[in-house]
Amino acid sequence: MANTKEKTKNKEKTRRLLNRFSRQRSNLIPTLQKVQEELGYLPREAMLEVARFLDVPDIDVYGVVTFYNQFRLNPPGKHSIRVCLGTACHMKGGYITLDAWKRRLKIDQGQTTADREFDLDTVACVGCCVMAPVTVVDGKPEGQVEPTKVDGILLSFEQERKKRGKKT
Amino acid sequence: MKATGRSTIASTFQKIKNQAELGWQELQRRRAVIMVGAATCGRAAGALEVLRAFKNELKKHNLDCPVFEVGCMGHCYAEPIVIISKPGFPPIVYQQVNPVIAKRLVREFIMGDDPCLESVLGALEANELVPSLADFPRAQFEKKIILKNCGYIDPEDIDHYIANGGYSALAKALQLTPAEIIAEIKKSGLRGRGGAGFAAGEKWATCRNASGKPKYVICNGDEGDPGAFMDRAILESDPHSVIEGMLIAGYAVGASHGYIYVRAEYPLAVHRTQLALRQARKLNLLGKSILGSDFSFDIKLFQGSGAFVCGEETALIASLEGKAGTPSHRPPYPAVSGLNGKPTLINNVKTLAFVRHIIDKGAEWFSGIGTKNSPGTAVFALAGKVVNTGLIEVPMGTTLRQVVFDVGSGIPGGKSFKAVQIGGPSGGCLPESALDLPIDFDSLAEAGAMMGSGGMIVLDEDDCMVEIARYFLEFTQRESCGKCTFCRLGTKQMLETLAEFTRGKGEIKDLDTLTELAEDIKAGSLCGLGRTAPNPVLTNLRYFRDEYEAHIKEGRCPALMCQELIAFYIIPDKCELTCDACVGTCTVEAISSHPKKRYKIIDQEKCVKCGTCLTACPPQYNAIAKLSPPSEVPK
Fold this sequence. Notes:
The structure holds two protein chains of two kinds.
Chain A lengths: L3 H15 L9 H12 L4 H11 L3 H10 L11 E6 L2 H5 L2 H12 L5 E2 L5 E6 L11 E3 L2 E3 L4 H21 L1
Parallel strand pairs in A: 1-3
Antiparallel strand pairs in A: 1-4, 2-3, 4-5
Helix pairs in contact in A: 1-2, 1-3, 2-3, 3-4
Chain B lengths: L2 H26 L4 E5 L2 H5 L2 H14 L6 E4 L11 E4 L6 E3 L4 H12 L9 E4 L34 H6 L4 H7 L3 H11 L11 H10 L6 E6 L8 H8 L1 H15 L3 E6 L4 H16 L15 E6 L9 H8 L23 E5 H13 L1 H5 L9 E8 L5 E6 L4 H8 L9 E6 L5 E4 L9 H6 L8 E6 L4 H15 L5 H18 L6 H16 L3 H5 L2 H20 L12 E4 L10 H5 L5 E3 L6 E3 L9 H5 L7 E4 L8
Parallel strand pairs in B: 1-2, 6-7, 6-9, 7-8, 10-14
Antiparallel strand pairs in B: 1-3, 3-4, 4-5, 10-11, 12-13, 12-14, 15-18, 16-17
């Protein structure tokens, strides 16, 4: 849960971003995208700021945020895992890959691990159908991700973390 | 336009063109030019690492050769692809290049004279050294028009586009009257490539004649069909061709503003299109008084936010206006009353990419390609169980068999063909018997499928038709905006029925209920999403009813795909006993050895049916079997 300090910080950051936009309803989606890019998600206080700035009812902002798949209401993890479930990926076992991620991370799609290291979600299609099944790891599409590769990817993150731990 | 105006346009453009050609010719004189295919698909295969390896190696040897990223050539099965042109050699295309091969190419081909033939895919022109791509058997079926530049020019450099004939159609168009342009587009017979196939010229004329100012031109790049990536490839590989199409459309309909609506899932397409817009503005190909004419037009890029329904034109407009993307009733059509209630022309990325070629080469050239009612070429994203996956462009009227077996080289792994899924969630699965169907808007619709935006997924014997129908329904049900009751509740009901089937439940009479419900949803929905959502189920039922019956009556999945209806089993007689491959790879530790006889046993309670053991078991033993129904497993 975000504490008061975090809330104020989010609010201030949102305000600063909003200054770049003109107060038009048509700017609603671009502003929300910008805020999410900065904060990683759209907390309540940020949505309220956007509503006030563009002079649209709060409910309209919430309506738009929940309508589109890209907007998220909970904070993201440090690493983002997006399992592609396009047709080609599905037919080549994307659903099995998704199961493997769920099993290993112990979370469901749309959730973030308790240590905020990973968040898991699906994506409709990233258009790399020939590399199916694809998982987008931290924005980079990885091809042929089968359950054993899931373990491999997690292992490399684990090693990186250990290395980092040694340095500090 | 007055004669003086015309000559200004021609001379202004000539100056820009000369400049661009100078740079292009300079490029051809270099020691070697290296082009790395770095569209999203190439990057996923490791193109950026290859790019870095080339740069490092060249630096190490103090060589000054230009290395740049190009888009997608369409041969996705061979990614990462690199083209090297070196004077004295034909331009050579290399396949599956990795950093090690990249280093070798620098040392042996660029510094030496050995073209490393073992990594070659083909050459770009006929020669005596390596076979050229034009000699490939598939080349006789292909005809590249809008994909011609893709993979051969730097999408981040406008000069490459101009030096290869770019923006000359715009210069030509600005010297014609809008009515002449619309007449030309009408005469060409160009039909919208977004899926429905509406005559583009008609749309343009309606928008031209509609009253209201300002008018808008929108490029629909919200390519949401899972399994389709043609628009992404074009925007990533040749963004200027779309911008030029929009400019000509804008001039023809009398618009002053344009929007390119791109999916948020395509960050690279967004980046390259933004860059292209900036470069075009700098050369006054966008902005006020373009090329010295009295035509002013500017384009903004708008990023979608992940809603499939926004590919529908009225929903897309709602999204641009900052609302939830729910479709509205047509008429009025957007061409009369669209964005902000003003006349708005919406065309798909591919439709707009065709425009410059039609203006350049004439309507007759275009209508001479393809069939009478569907002129031109069709672009497909070929994926799934096919050898040569990738992006293809074939004349309309080519048969599905030619596309799958001649261009795509058939099914890999000795499996047999089952169906080809066309048109994504709005289309359908066509079986072997429909393979000789010519590809055009009308024949496909007759067979129950749809041209759609052009995704083509090949399915083999391992793919379950009930499961694929369930998959598409899950997709449309999730993406339904919820406005129409039939679509919102009907797709949910259909999905639940199909999900029951994949678990081996349900009754035969449910098949009739399903068909009835499908017809109701088609009739009772406002937009294309709802009206076409039942298509995958209907075509599936038409051609593969026996598979549904096997699921319902026997609890058996003939394709061995539905997880609840299969089980993995290790055949004791075939198990090698001392090999531990399956035990080691099992992700849930469900495999153990028999305490005495040492053959491996799968604990069915623990097994998650991921199939990893099946791939791990060495082919000489081939000891693991998939069985359906699960009761087939011996106790």
